[in-house]
Design brief:
The protein is an alpha+beta fold. Strands 1-2-4-3 form a 4-stranded antiparallel β-sheet. The termini are far apart. The chain is globular, with a radius of gyration of 16 Å. Helix 4 packs antiparallel against helix 5. The protein has a single domain, classed as Endonuclease I-creI (Roll), CATH 3.10.28.10. Strand 3 and strand 4 form a beta hairpin. It contains 6 helices and 4 strands, in the order αββαββαααα.
Amino acid sequence: MGSRSKIDLAYIAGFLDGDGSLMLQLKKRKDGKAKIRFMLTICFYQDTRHEKPLYWIRNILGIGYISRRNDGMTELRINGYKQVRNIIKDLLPYIRFKKYQAKALFEASDILCRGNINKLNKNELKTLVNLILVIQKENYVTKKKKTKEELYKILDLTP
């Protein structure tokens, strides 16, 4: 990981509050025993003409990949249960506007870091569904959001 001063972390948290997003998604997968997976993402966005801060953030955090989109935007994405948990833990004291989402993402990463998705019990899966809904509610999303019932069905939690 990169060198992280409190000032750097506060700056990165402010950048995330303004030009970032926190995501907890349930994705279908074709490979492996589990037919679904949870995906945790921290994403920072910037107009490609002004993308240098994204490289600085990646350097300070020591992780992530940068990609240029076709719409003139560049994004820095960080995925992975442990990586997201560690970064959110460091940024949480400085996050202001996305505090609920950050706390929900941290709680989800904590559950998912404990082990295999196939070993999660029904209460843990229900908690993860509720955390998805907390984050979803706070995010601006152009695609249709999944309902609690749809998420329960995907996870085979329906009675």
